[in-house]
Amino acid sequence: MADTIIILDYGSQYAQLIARRVREANVYCEIVSWRAPAEEVLARQPKGFILSGGPNSVYDPGAPALPDYVLGAGVPVLGICYGMQLLAHRLGGRVAGSTRREYGPATLAVDETAAPLFANWGASDGRGETVWMSHGDKVEALPPGFRPIAHSDNSPLAAAADPARGLYAVQFHPEVAHTPRGAVLLSNFVHRICGCGPDWTPANVIDGATTAIRRQVGDGRVVLGLSGGVDSAVAAALIHRAIGEQLTCIFVDTGLLRLGEAVKVVQTFQQEQGIHLIAVNAVEEYLEALAGVTDPEQKRRIIGEKFVRVFEREAARLGRIDFLAQGTIYPDVIESAGKGREARVIKTHHNVGGLPDDMQFQLVEPLRMLFKDEVRRLGAALGLPDAIVWRQPFPGPGLAVRCLGEVTWERLERLRAADAVFLEELAAADLLREGTQQAFAVLLPVRSVGVMGDGRTYQEVIALRAVTSEDFMTADWARLPHELLARVSRRIVNEVAGVNRVVFDITSKPPGTIEWE
Question: Is 178 noted as a catalytic residue in this protein?
């Protein structure tokens, strides 16, 4: 078992960013709800706790509380924002409403430079470091045993410590990019204060996952839905390494894939990777099941159930099959409000919340606790080619959630053609990997008036989406060159029948999600 840090989630929009920074320090961590049962949390044998921020005041009726096991575990604790206020309130300090809400950058002055939390923190010229504040309440008086170790203009107690008990707290958010040295602080906490080793590495993850897969599967047989995306590809390679011929991959051509994708998937994995792969043409089944459906959540549920039913049918032809393997990753679990999360459901991922209750398989999900960049590093360590490891992300329900409104073959072909033009132009401009982390076209369920060849047209609209992101939990829209966008728009309107208008999505995540549905 790797050294583990538990992040208690108090409803913060930044909880997943805390996890990312801790993982970047090569330390394993998990996000769990502050409501989670003590035995469930302590079973992970945490070497430290991080208390996230959150939208509440400690004085709100029914405000999220500090579980007794956190202080009783005898391991270090770091409170961030609401987590700091919670520690202070619980231990006898005083929390008060701020005279003004502090939201935005602040300059932090470290008062106790020897504090292990701020080791290697400050600039060599002694100037303060920029941090990101986002709070209303703040700690006005520290509990007994605590001493201040940093301040800002509006927060005299911006950081505090009780080293004897291993308790630390900061009012700012070290996990966000707007606190440039925040990763140093979190690394100090998990390594210097909690004593965690840097053992969360691809090699160790592969070893641990291989052992876990063998233990779970035993002599059972596993089927895996291979979409060709990086998640299912890495899951396939990892499981194949663990159990070899006990794994059969089933590729289902749903009719919801990108241009030429079905042929490429079969060629890559069947011929080049040597994995036992069965290809199934289920295009008509999916189109029939989706006929007339426009609600995105219903689409996801239909696709999730159809996915399992096709697998059950194909598995029956293979004989005894015990397990269904999936490339589920941590953002899927978080966005689907998986176990232990405080956040509301954003959207149901078909491989997390869309599977039917009467499914006949047990699940094998070796990537369930990994972020996308960790999956890519694992793929590289497993020897997968760059063309797979760095392939553009693609949603489990495929083009069904990029074809807004009713899904028909004609509309899918229209979307496929437009998407291919966009990706082709991005690749020609060397922007598919460096300039964007995800890019695609969306077909909108609206028509607009246009003019072509001196005649009136009334056709559909294509939206282009391109984002930059480190972890896909947050994202910003890519600032693509205007000349590139003009060329893409011109080509789509001229080459794709049924489209007379192209728009570009400039929404970040949050408030939007990367996908439209």
Answer: no
